[in-house]
Write a structure and sequence with these properties.
Elements: H1 24-32, H2 38-51, E1 56-60, E2 63-67, E3 71-75, E4 83-87, E5 109-113, E6 116-122, H3 125-143
Antiparallel strand pairs: 1-2, 2-3, 3-4, 4-6, 5-6
Length: about 140
């Protein structure tokens, strides 16, 4: 009896493999993370993944990052007093200008460039207080991807 041939899934040319929905590397990263806001970072991860089934996570730029068709958000784990993420449009500049096009009534965004913003969520109870506004920002951002 001939051995079964292994088939490999081929991706379309120019397409990157999407990260896993709940990436094991992110789980391992968070388990090993020595950070004063470790619980808050884990909670924000679940909030982002809960916004849309299209969102997945993975380790990009050596930290947990989130993607749909491309990476769009990355934790800033250097911040020790509050949870921060950088919202972007992937690794390469695409000439996208979204500054001012995303409603931010809670004032969570600080624009770093026309296609990149820092989201500051705070710590502790601030995370829960900012949840709805943050979820709206994530939804608005991924619509532009």
């Amino acid at each position: 009896m001939p051995a079964a041939r292994k088939t490999s899934a081929k991706k379309a040319p120019g397409k990157k493999a999407a990260p896993a929905r709940n990436d094991a590397a992110v789980e391992a990263y968070l388990k090993a993370l020595d950070h004063p806001l470790k619980k808050e970072i884990a909670a924000v991860r679940l909030i982002i993944l809960g916004v849309s089934p299209k969102i997945s996570d993975g380790i990009k730029w050596n930290v947990p990052s989130f993607a749909t068709s491309d990476y769009f958000a990355t934790f800033n784990v250097r911040a020790k007093e509050r949870v921060e993420l950088i919202f972007h449009f992937g690794a390469k500049a695409k000439g996208i200008s979204v500054e001012g096009k995303i409603p931010d009534p809670a004032g969570l965004l600080k624009w770093l460039a026309k296609d990149r913003a820092m989201v500051t969520l705070g710590a502790g109870r601030d995370i829960a207080a900012n949840r709805k506004a943050f979820e709206a920002l994530v939804r608005a951002w991924i619509k532009l991807l």
